[in-house]
Amino acid sequence: MVFANATALPSLYHEMYPGTDLASLSWLEQQWVHWYVSIGNPVLATGLASFLLHEIVYFGRSIPWIIIDSMPYFRKWKLQPKKIPTMAEQWECTKTVLFSHFTIELPLIWLFHPTAEALGMSTYQVPFPSLKTMAPQIFLFFFFEDFFHFVAHQALHTGVLYKHIHKIHHKYSAPFGLAAEYAHPAEVFILGAGTILGPLIYCFFTANLHIITVYSWIVLRLFQAVDAHSGYDFPWSLHNIVPFWSGAEHHDFHHMAFTNNFSTSFRWWDRIFGTDDKYRAYRARVKAAKKAMKNASAEDIKNFEEKLMNEVEAEGIKAEAEAEARGIKAFGKAQ
Protein backbone atom coordinates (compact mmCIF):
# COMPACT_ATOMS: atom_id res chain seq x y z
CA MET A 1 0.00 0.00 0.00
CA VAL A 2 1.17 3.54 -0.79
CA PHE A 3 -0.35 6.66 0.73
CA ALA A 4 -1.94 8.71 -2.04
CA ASN A 5 -1.15 12.14 -0.70
CA ALA A 6 -0.09 13.85 2.47
CA THR A 7 -3.57 15.31 3.18
CA ALA A 8 -5.05 11.80 3.42
CA LEU A 9 -2.52 10.64 5.99
CA PRO A 10 -3.45 10.24 9.65
CA SER A 11 -2.04 12.84 12.01
CA LEU A 12 0.31 10.25 13.44
CA TYR A 13 2.21 10.23 10.17
CA HIS A 14 2.97 13.95 10.50
CA GLU A 15 4.16 13.37 14.06
CA MET A 16 6.41 10.42 13.25
CA TYR A 17 7.64 11.47 9.81
CA PRO A 18 7.67 15.28 9.71
CA GLY A 19 8.83 16.62 6.37
CA THR A 20 9.23 13.16 4.83
CA ASP A 21 8.42 12.97 1.12
CA LEU A 22 6.77 9.58 0.60
CA ALA A 23 7.36 9.73 -3.13
CA SER A 24 11.12 9.70 -2.50
CA LEU A 25 10.92 6.41 -0.58
CA SER A 26 11.23 2.92 -1.99
CA TRP A 27 8.23 0.60 -2.03
CA LEU A 28 9.54 -1.30 1.00
CA GLU A 29 10.15 1.91 2.94
CA GLN A 30 6.61 3.03 2.18
CA GLN A 31 5.26 -0.25 3.57
CA TRP A 32 7.42 0.30 6.65
CA VAL A 33 5.82 3.72 7.19
CA HIS A 34 2.37 2.26 6.64
CA TRP A 35 2.99 -0.51 9.21
CA TYR A 36 3.99 1.88 11.99
CA VAL A 37 1.33 4.48 11.20
CA SER A 38 -1.44 1.90 10.87
CA ILE A 39 -0.68 0.25 14.19
CA GLY A 40 -0.14 3.59 15.85
CA ASN A 41 2.11 2.32 18.64
CA PRO A 42 5.84 1.87 17.89
CA VAL A 43 6.34 -0.60 20.77
CA LEU A 44 3.49 -2.79 19.55
CA ALA A 45 4.48 -2.44 15.89
CA THR A 46 8.10 -3.41 16.56
CA GLY A 47 7.12 -6.28 18.85
CA LEU A 48 4.69 -7.76 16.35
CA ALA A 49 7.09 -7.33 13.44
CA SER A 50 9.94 -8.97 15.39
CA PHE A 51 7.88 -11.96 16.50
CA LEU A 52 6.28 -12.53 13.09
CA LEU A 53 9.65 -12.23 11.35
CA HIS A 54 11.14 -14.90 13.58
CA GLU A 55 8.24 -17.33 13.21
CA ILE A 56 7.85 -16.91 9.44
CA VAL A 57 11.58 -17.21 8.68
CA TYR A 58 12.29 -20.05 11.11
CA PHE A 59 9.43 -22.30 10.06
CA GLY A 60 9.56 -21.13 6.45
CA ARG A 61 13.22 -22.14 6.21
CA SER A 62 12.51 -25.47 7.93
CA ILE A 63 9.81 -26.55 5.47
CA PRO A 64 12.22 -27.26 2.55
CA TRP A 65 14.24 -29.54 4.83
CA ILE A 66 11.09 -31.40 5.89
CA ILE A 67 10.32 -31.98 2.20
CA ILE A 68 13.90 -33.06 1.48
CA ASP A 69 13.82 -35.51 4.40
CA SER A 70 10.75 -37.15 2.86
CA MET A 71 12.45 -37.73 -0.51
CA PRO A 72 14.83 -40.73 -0.82
CA TYR A 73 16.60 -39.05 -3.75
CA PHE A 74 18.46 -36.76 -1.34
CA ARG A 75 19.82 -39.56 0.89
CA LYS A 76 23.16 -39.54 -0.93
CA TRP A 77 23.86 -36.12 0.59
CA LYS A 78 22.53 -36.99 4.05
CA LEU A 79 25.39 -36.95 6.56
CA GLN A 80 23.80 -39.73 8.63
CA PRO A 81 21.68 -41.41 5.93
CA LYS A 82 20.10 -44.07 8.16
CA LYS A 83 18.65 -41.52 10.57
CA ILE A 84 15.69 -39.84 8.92
CA PRO A 85 13.34 -37.94 11.26
CA THR A 86 9.80 -39.26 11.37
CA MET A 87 6.76 -37.01 11.14
CA ALA A 88 6.08 -37.77 14.82
CA GLU A 89 9.55 -36.48 15.72
CA GLN A 90 9.07 -33.41 13.55
CA TRP A 91 5.76 -32.65 15.27
CA GLU A 92 7.17 -33.20 18.77
CA CYS A 93 10.04 -30.89 17.89
CA THR A 94 7.65 -28.24 16.55
CA LYS A 95 5.61 -28.24 19.77
CA THR A 96 8.71 -27.79 21.93
CA VAL A 97 10.02 -24.99 19.71
CA LEU A 98 6.68 -23.17 19.80
CA PHE A 99 6.55 -23.53 23.59
CA SER A 100 9.93 -21.76 23.89
CA HIS A 101 8.91 -19.09 21.41
CA PHE A 102 5.74 -18.26 23.31
CA THR A 103 7.15 -18.54 26.85
CA ILE A 104 10.53 -16.86 26.32
CA GLU A 105 10.58 -14.87 23.10
CA LEU A 106 7.06 -13.42 23.08
CA PRO A 107 7.10 -11.97 26.64
CA LEU A 108 10.59 -10.49 26.21
CA ILE A 109 10.10 -9.10 22.72
CA TRP A 110 8.05 -6.15 23.98
CA LEU A 111 11.18 -4.86 25.72
CA PHE A 112 13.06 -4.67 22.44
CA HIS A 113 11.69 -1.37 21.11
CA PRO A 114 12.16 0.63 24.36
CA THR A 115 15.66 -0.83 24.79
CA ALA A 116 16.60 -0.16 21.17
CA GLU A 117 15.39 3.45 21.29
CA ALA A 118 17.14 4.04 24.63
CA LEU A 119 20.40 3.00 22.96
CA GLY A 120 19.79 5.25 19.96
CA MET A 121 18.70 2.63 17.43
CA SER A 122 16.50 3.82 14.57
CA THR A 123 13.30 1.78 14.43
CA TYR A 124 10.34 3.33 12.58
CA GLN A 125 12.53 5.91 10.83
CA VAL A 126 13.12 6.04 7.08
CA PRO A 127 14.99 5.87 4.76
CA PHE A 128 16.77 2.56 5.36
CA PRO A 129 20.57 2.38 5.51
CA SER A 130 22.46 1.36 2.38
CA LEU A 131 23.83 -2.13 1.84
CA LYS A 132 27.32 -0.61 2.12
CA THR A 133 26.47 0.51 5.66
CA MET A 134 24.69 -2.70 6.65
CA ALA A 135 27.20 -5.29 5.42
CA PRO A 136 30.08 -4.59 7.85
CA GLN A 137 27.63 -4.25 10.74
CA ILE A 138 26.12 -7.65 9.99
CA PHE A 139 29.58 -9.22 9.74
CA LEU A 140 30.42 -7.85 13.20
CA PHE A 141 27.22 -9.37 14.56
CA PHE A 142 28.15 -12.73 13.04
CA PHE A 143 31.63 -12.48 14.59
CA PHE A 144 30.31 -11.53 18.04
CA GLU A 145 27.57 -14.18 18.10
CA ASP A 146 29.95 -16.89 16.93
CA PHE A 147 32.40 -16.27 19.79
CA PHE A 148 29.60 -15.82 22.34
CA HIS A 149 28.06 -19.12 21.22
CA PHE A 150 31.45 -20.87 21.26
CA VAL A 151 31.97 -19.95 24.93
CA ALA A 152 28.37 -20.37 26.12
CA HIS A 153 27.90 -23.65 24.25
CA GLN A 154 30.91 -25.21 25.95
CA ALA A 155 29.57 -24.04 29.31
CA LEU A 156 26.27 -25.78 28.54
CA HIS A 157 28.19 -29.04 28.10
CA THR A 158 29.34 -29.02 31.72
CA GLY A 159 27.83 -30.24 34.98
CA VAL A 160 24.37 -29.11 35.97
CA LEU A 161 23.97 -26.98 32.84
CA TYR A 162 24.12 -30.04 30.63
CA LYS A 163 22.05 -32.34 32.83
CA HIS A 164 19.19 -29.90 33.35
CA ILE A 165 19.33 -27.65 30.27
CA HIS A 166 21.40 -28.61 27.22
CA LYS A 167 20.57 -32.34 27.26
CA ILE A 168 17.23 -31.60 25.56
CA HIS A 169 18.96 -30.22 22.47
CA HIS A 170 21.11 -33.35 22.20
CA LYS A 171 18.12 -35.65 21.98
CA TYR A 172 18.78 -36.07 18.25
CA SER A 173 22.24 -37.40 17.37
CA ALA A 174 21.28 -36.72 13.75
CA PRO A 175 19.71 -33.24 13.78
CA PHE A 176 17.17 -31.89 11.30
CA GLY A 177 16.18 -28.34 10.36
CA LEU A 178 13.39 -27.84 12.89
CA ALA A 179 15.69 -28.98 15.70
CA ALA A 180 17.79 -25.82 15.48
CA GLU A 181 15.79 -24.28 18.34
CA TYR A 182 14.68 -27.53 19.96
CA ALA A 183 15.97 -26.65 23.40
CA HIS A 184 15.18 -25.88 27.01
CA PRO A 185 13.68 -22.37 27.38
CA ALA A 186 16.72 -21.38 29.46
CA GLU A 187 19.02 -22.37 26.60
CA VAL A 188 16.90 -20.39 24.15
CA PHE A 189 17.40 -17.36 26.40
CA ILE A 190 21.15 -17.94 26.95
CA LEU A 191 22.17 -18.59 23.35
CA GLY A 192 19.60 -16.16 21.96
CA ALA A 193 21.34 -13.44 23.95
CA GLY A 194 24.32 -13.80 21.63
CA THR A 195 22.13 -12.90 18.66
CA ILE A 196 20.69 -9.70 20.11
CA LEU A 197 23.53 -8.48 22.37
CA GLY A 198 25.83 -7.82 19.41
CA PRO A 199 23.52 -5.23 17.84
CA LEU A 200 22.66 -3.67 21.21
CA ILE A 201 26.32 -3.29 22.23
CA TYR A 202 27.21 -1.94 18.79
CA CYS A 203 24.39 0.59 19.02
CA PHE A 204 25.43 1.60 22.54
CA PHE A 205 28.89 2.61 21.32
CA THR A 206 27.97 4.05 17.92
CA ALA A 207 24.31 5.14 18.13
CA ASN A 208 24.34 4.35 14.40
CA LEU A 209 22.14 1.34 13.71
CA HIS A 210 18.77 0.79 12.09
CA ILE A 211 16.47 -2.03 13.10
CA ILE A 212 16.21 -3.11 9.45
CA THR A 213 19.90 -4.07 9.72
CA VAL A 214 19.12 -6.07 12.85
CA TYR A 215 16.24 -7.80 11.07
CA SER A 216 18.49 -8.63 8.13
CA TRP A 217 21.03 -10.08 10.55
CA ILE A 218 18.36 -12.16 12.32
CA VAL A 219 17.11 -13.58 9.00
CA LEU A 220 20.64 -14.63 8.03
CA ARG A 221 21.28 -16.06 11.50
CA LEU A 222 18.09 -18.12 11.35
CA PHE A 223 19.05 -19.45 7.93
CA GLN A 224 22.46 -20.38 9.32
CA ALA A 225 21.01 -22.13 12.38
CA VAL A 226 18.38 -24.12 10.50
CA ASP A 227 20.77 -25.10 7.70
CA ALA A 228 23.48 -26.15 10.18
CA HIS A 229 20.99 -28.59 11.71
CA SER A 230 19.66 -29.83 8.36
CA GLY A 231 21.85 -32.94 8.31
CA TYR A 232 22.76 -32.50 4.63
CA ASP A 233 26.00 -31.62 2.90
CA PHE A 234 25.61 -30.75 -0.77
CA PRO A 235 28.44 -29.98 -3.22
CA TRP A 236 27.07 -26.41 -3.33
CA SER A 237 26.87 -26.04 0.46
CA LEU A 238 28.51 -22.80 1.57
CA HIS A 239 31.40 -24.42 3.45
CA ASN A 240 32.53 -26.00 0.16
CA ILE A 241 32.86 -22.47 -1.21
CA VAL A 242 33.94 -20.59 1.93
CA PRO A 243 36.27 -23.00 3.84
CA PHE A 244 35.98 -21.26 7.22
CA TRP A 245 32.17 -21.45 7.21
CA SER A 246 30.85 -24.16 9.56
CA GLY A 247 27.68 -25.48 7.97
CA ALA A 248 25.85 -28.76 8.53
CA GLU A 249 28.91 -30.92 7.88
CA HIS A 250 30.68 -29.29 10.83
CA HIS A 251 27.76 -29.14 13.26
CA ASP A 252 26.35 -32.57 12.45
CA PHE A 253 29.54 -34.07 13.90
CA HIS A 254 28.90 -32.22 17.17
CA HIS A 255 25.53 -33.95 17.55
CA MET A 256 26.94 -37.31 16.53
CA ALA A 257 30.06 -37.14 18.73
CA PHE A 258 28.69 -34.93 21.53
CA THR A 259 32.06 -33.17 21.81
CA ASN A 260 33.93 -30.83 19.42
CA ASN A 261 32.70 -28.10 17.07
CA PHE A 262 31.04 -25.70 19.52
CA SER A 263 30.88 -22.61 17.30
CA THR A 264 28.00 -21.68 15.02
CA SER A 265 29.01 -19.80 11.86
CA PHE A 266 32.79 -20.07 11.60
CA ARG A 267 35.36 -22.81 12.15
CA TRP A 268 38.23 -20.71 13.41
CA TRP A 269 37.54 -20.71 17.20
CA ASP A 270 37.34 -24.50 17.29
CA ARG A 271 40.57 -24.69 15.31
CA ILE A 272 42.38 -22.11 17.47
CA PHE A 273 41.36 -23.73 20.78
CA GLY A 274 41.67 -27.32 19.58
CA THR A 275 38.02 -28.23 20.08
CA ASP A 276 37.85 -29.80 16.63
CA ASP A 277 40.58 -32.43 17.12
CA LYS A 278 38.25 -35.42 17.04
CA TYR A 279 36.36 -33.97 14.11
CA ARG A 280 39.52 -33.46 12.06
CA ALA A 281 40.74 -36.96 12.96
CA TYR A 282 37.42 -38.38 11.82
CA ARG A 283 37.47 -36.47 8.52
CA ALA A 284 41.07 -37.60 7.93
CA ARG A 285 40.08 -41.24 8.47
CA VAL A 286 37.16 -40.91 6.05
CA LYS A 287 39.37 -39.26 3.43
CA ALA A 288 42.12 -41.87 3.80
CA ALA A 289 39.62 -44.71 3.64
CA LYS A 290 38.03 -43.39 0.45
CA LYS A 291 41.46 -43.09 -1.13
CA ALA A 292 42.47 -46.61 -0.06
CA MET A 293 39.13 -48.06 -1.15
CA LYS A 294 38.90 -46.27 -4.51
CA ASN A 295 38.47 -49.62 -6.25
CA ALA A 296 36.02 -50.98 -3.70
CA SER A 297 32.30 -51.18 -4.31
CA ALA A 298 30.01 -48.36 -3.29
CA GLU A 299 28.41 -50.72 -0.77
CA ASP A 300 31.76 -51.51 0.88
CA ILE A 301 32.61 -47.80 1.15
CA LYS A 302 29.17 -47.08 2.58
CA ASN A 303 29.55 -49.86 5.16
CA PHE A 304 32.96 -48.58 6.22
CA GLU A 305 31.67 -45.03 6.65
CA GLU A 306 28.77 -46.35 8.70
CA LYS A 307 31.23 -48.28 10.89
CA LEU A 308 33.22 -45.08 11.52
CA MET A 309 30.05 -43.15 12.37
CA ASN A 310 28.97 -45.86 14.82
CA GLU A 311 32.36 -45.69 16.54
CA VAL A 312 32.16 -41.90 16.86
CA GLU A 313 28.60 -42.04 18.12
CA ALA A 314 29.51 -44.71 20.70
CA GLU A 315 32.29 -42.47 22.00
CA GLY A 316 29.81 -39.59 22.06
CA ILE A 317 27.29 -41.58 24.11
CA LYS A 318 30.04 -42.34 26.62
CA ALA A 319 31.12 -38.68 26.78
CA GLU A 320 27.50 -37.58 27.24
CA ALA A 321 27.00 -40.07 30.08
CA GLU A 322 30.13 -38.74 31.80
CA ALA A 323 28.93 -35.14 31.45
CA GLU A 324 25.53 -36.08 32.80
CA ALA A 325 27.08 -37.95 35.74
CA ARG A 326 29.14 -34.90 36.62
CA GLY A 327 25.94 -32.87 36.53
CA ILE A 328 24.20 -35.25 38.93
CA LYS A 329 27.21 -35.23 41.25
CA ALA A 330 27.44 -31.43 41.23
CA PHE A 331 23.71 -31.13 41.85
CA GLY A 332 23.97 -33.57 44.77
CA LYS A 333 26.72 -31.50 46.39
CA ALA A 334 24.68 -28.35 45.97
CA GLN A 335 21.82 -30.01 47.88
From TrEMBL:
Residues 279-315 form a coiled coil. Residues 139-275 form the Fatty acid hydroxylase domain. It holds the Pfam family FA_hydroxylase. InterPro entries: Fatty_acid_hydroxylase, Sterol_Desaturase_Related. The keyword Kinase does not apply. GO terms for biological process: lipid biosynthetic process. GO terms for cellular component: membrane. It comes from the Eukaryota. It is found in: Membrane. The keyword Transmembrane helix applies. One of its GO terms (molecular function) is oxidoreductase activity. PANTHER family: STEROL DESATURASE (PTHR11863). This is C-4 methyl sterol oxidase.
